[in-house]
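Spend some time on the protein that follows and explain the fold to me:
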Amino acid sequence: MRRTAVLIGAPAHDLTGVGNDVDAMAELLAGRGFATVRCEGSEATRAGILDAYGRLIRDARPDDAVVVYYSGHGGLATPPPQLRTPGRAAPPRLQFIVPVDHPGPAATDFRGITAPELSVLLLRLTNTTRNVTVIIDACHAAHVFRDDGLRVKALRQPAYLDVAEHLSRLRRQGLDTAALHALGNQDAVRVVACGREQSAYEYTNDAGRPAGLFTEALTLTLAETGDRPVSWADLLPRVRERVRAVVPFQRPEAEGPALRPPFQLDPVRPGLGLEAGPDRAALGAAVTIGWGRVVGGRAHPLPAQDALVHAGEDVYVRVRNDGRATVHVSLLAFDPLARGSVVTSLDPSGVPVRPGEEHVIGRDELHGRLDGIPLRWPAGAGDAPRPAAFVVLVSSAPEAPAEVFRDLSMHGDDGLRRDAHRIRFRLDPGPRSPANSTSEQ
């Protein structure tokens, strides 16, 4: 098995610590047997980054361990109010990373690399090898923070229509974003500097060197861990502790299969156990929860308890926040063998749902398409219908189930409260009858 990495450092605009970030990551990965290719400084243009990523994909072999690292600015384009239609899903927010040649010489010459483009590249890479780790020291939400020692790693208010037109042009030229799934790439671990709506920072460290807070915390934590069998989910609290000692509101996350150890495939520990709910930590949030089948891209509601569904079907879970405070929503799935997994791994500490808003787990934000959550029958579960469940966790603050819960009776940080809403059903290993399937078209 080979170990290869592409390290991208784009010191666009006011960032000064990107080169040090790339040096630190190169040293750490070399100590773990990785051969690294660097794309940094003046080479980290849009064309240069895409070329380096493309060569990584072309050279990859099955069972390789591969790392893609990026340090630089991120951007987030939000749709203006005039593009929103009452009663319909809002246009997607468009995230991107910022090469050194962004923006182009013309106002409409957008040279960022959007999240859908990066997701398509990642899918091409994981089609060859599943052992992929993406590490991003950037953010998308450029919140204002008055501190001369901190520099936010995000651009402010990019033009939404410029980014949307860029993405539409790429689709016309053959970019296949339709191949992406609402639940994200389940083969790649993505370790990111902060949550989707937070900011990430670089600062001047105790040695007088500018560096990304997240990269420094991550490399220090990996170095002290060594070869001990711990997962990304086990490591992230220590990374977060180091970051929050400087910036209390930056929360690094591990997305995707976070129970894997660093740069390996097999999970460190089994999934979560379906135990009694966390009654002592009850939040009592006013939420409405529903679920159902997805048939032909349309929702068909099911009863909350004891519905019969079949392996091979897709389902959705809908959560509406009827209260006055933002809640954070996670979804756990428990198969007929009572093995648990985190479905909302793209938002590992919970999807923020604001008052009056609704979130549908299984809906593709980019296309507004209802893909659903695939139901699978586990090997060794027999050939008769068996009980299974979803558990919707609603918490008062961000919380990562893969880190906190060995079972649902465990409690998180002091002061954090949560509710556990169970959707119990029976899963049949056989397909649905054609008559039933046709009736719901």
Summary: Residues 142-148, 275-280, 406-412 have pLDDT under 50 and may be disordered. The radius of gyration is 22 Å. The helical segments are 18-31, 46-59, 115-126, 160-172, 213-225, 232-244, 401-404, 434-439.
